[in-house]
Amino acid sequence: MQVFVILPAAGLGTRMAAGQPKQFLELAGVPILIHSLRAFAQVPQVTAIYVAVRASEQERVEAQIKEHGFAKRVRIVTGGDTRQESVANALKAIACSDEDIVLVHDAVRPLIDAATISRTIEAVEKHNAAIVGLPAIDTIKQVERTAAGAIITATIPREYIVQAQTPQGFRCGLLKRAFAEALSDGFVGTDEASIVERAGAQVFVVPGSAANIKITQPGDLELAEFYLSRQ
Ligand code: C5P
């Protein structure tokens, strides 16, 4: 059994307002994408890592990967207009058997640790589909958006809620079938689990950590620096 990793890194990161995509911003002097790559490169079961980037950024990513010594196990593929398209392009490039495992991880979650990655791989070996999720701490409200503002329509018991993080891992055959179904139905999801759920598979949850933040908005970099300094 082989384990492949997909790092979608083709987003524009406009919410960050940083002048360049957030995956290329530096954290402790190293690009965020390289932190994420390093975490997966440390896991011995990982066979190869596919990074989806915009065509215009291919050269700089190749140079960064070489500079940090990851060239051997890393392949670059062209990203798409949505995260789902970027992952689909990488998935197409992976020659896997149905039983192999594919982990998808946001390139902008640089604080993922090797132990959580290993636990996700073990959960996929056992259940075929598993994602990292964080139990909700806040009380969760369902709302209706109106012109006057949001109005609460229900309170969802916290024990029913987890916040989906990454990595999200699946048997390769299952993920390819689910992506093909989503494509033919025109479904676009914001994570891989939603695509696999609608294909009828059960997806298990591996406990995540609050430190596994997705760098999204101004202030997140400072928070990531803080978590990194404590690792
Ligand atoms: O935009 P969001 O924060 O959901 O992005 C999550 C991950 O998906 C990021 O690593 C981003 O670079 C990637 N992405 C991508 N292709 C897109 C949009 C987002 O690879 N078209």
Descriptive tags:
single chain; 7-stranded mixed beta sheet; binds cytidine-5'-monophosphate; alpha/beta; 7 helices; two-stranded antiparallel sheet; 231 residues; Spore Coat Polysaccharide Biosynthesis Protein SpsA, Chain A
Please characterize this protein's 3D structure.
By secondary structure, the protein is α/β, with parallel strands linked by helices. It has one domain: Alpha-Beta Complex (Spore Coat Polysaccharide Biosynthesis Protein SpsA, Chain A). The chain is built from seven helices and eleven strands. Strands 5-4-1-6-10-7-11 form a seven-stranded mixed sheet, with helices on both faces. β4 (46-53), α2 (58-67) and β5 (74-78) form a beta-alpha-beta unit. The two termini are 31 Å apart. The model has no long low-confidence stretch (mean pLDDT 95). Cytidine-5'-monophosphate is lined by residues 8-11, 23, 52, 79-83, 86, 106-108, 214, 216. Residues 8-11, 23, 52, 79-83, 86, 106-108, 214, 216 line the site of cytidine-5'-monophosphate.
Task: Briefly characterize the structure.
Helix content is 33%, strand content 27%. It contains seven helices and eleven strands. It has helices at 32-41, 58-67, 83-93, 114-127, 172-185, 192-198, 220-230, and strands at residues 3-8, 26-27, 30-31, 46-53, 74-78, 101-104, 129-135, 140-146, 149-156, 162-171, 204-207.
